[in-house]
Amino acid sequence: HVQLVESGGGSVQPGGSLTLSCKVSSTTKLTFCMGWFRQAPAKERKAVAVIDMDGKINYADSVKERFTVSRDDEQAILYLQMNSLKSEDSDMYYCAATFACGVSWSNPQIFSYWGLGTQVTVS
User: Fold this and answer.
1) What is the pLDDT along the chain (123 residues), one digit of tens a residue?
2) Distance CA 55, CA 50 (A)
3) Which long-range contacts (CB under 8 A, 24 or more apart) does 24-31 make?
């Protein structure tokens, strides 16, 4: 059984920063490909940043140079440092995990486990 719990969302002014966290709880010690996705109401879920089991990181073009994804495998926590936030970054942000990503890192359908999401509002 795997559970993901996000935290750190909130409201911030344009140009501000937020750090999202995702705590992973698992009945067995596993290593995952993990990432952050975003979704607006009635829209498709889109990849923001993904870090694979080998440490390879991929970002959506819209967040490169502004967002940084990292993981602490000892504490089983995934982070997303969000800087220079823009109004268009406003969305529900979800943490996700799966056993392998590779070239399909941006496809939400390959992710087996999801958190409930945390809202980010930039205005």
Assistant:
1) 889 999 999 999 999 999 999 999 986 666 789 999 999 999 999 999 999 988 999 999 999 999 999 999 888 899 999 999 999 999 999 999 998 899 999 999 999 999 999 999 999
2) 9
3) 24/76, 24/77, 24/78, 24/97, 25/76, 26/1, 26/2, 26/76, 27/1, 27/2, 30/2, 30/99, 31/73
